[in-house]
Amino acid sequence: MKMIHSLLARMPVPVKLGIPLASALLATACGSAAAASSPSAPASSAAAAGSSASASATGTVITTHAGSAGAFLTDGSGRTVYLWAQDGMNMSACSGACAAAWPPVPATGTLTATGGAKASDLGTITRSDGTKQATYDGHPLYYFVGDSAAGQTNGQGSDNFGAKWWLVAPSGAKITAADTAAAAAANAPAPSAPSAPASSNAGGGWS
Q: Quick check: 49 pLDDT over 50?
């Protein structure tokens, strides 16, 4: 201790004053560095908020597909949608086993009409389980589990669960004629071996 005191006593006054000043400057620099690094957190959270906002902007799309009996409604992926004769206006009578075979078209995000479909005819209803179902001209819309590729109409004219299932025209009317174009495509000869991988990818089924 005596040696330290004697060394300090021999130091010039400017050097003695510089020691606490240097300490203060070092502390200020450390604080500035910490403050400069902190804004990165809000930036990352803003990016996350932006990605969730873009995801929520997507929604159910109803469009049209050309058939032998005229254009009919499909979703944005080309999957055929149907109406059920048993349903009332803006009311679904299909639940349980019926809804398992004929899944309701979900109304998610913003409903959009493209092709020959009319945006003014789109609507939603709330089902008994609380989920939202898309409607068109007051008709609740359904898929059919027997359709496994875009444009297929295997449910057309079916009387499952006691009433007929029909394709839906862009006007909102039911289409009662058979869709021979889809039937012809289903009965077409199997593709040759070189093109087989492409056709197997197309028929993966609906998720």
A: no
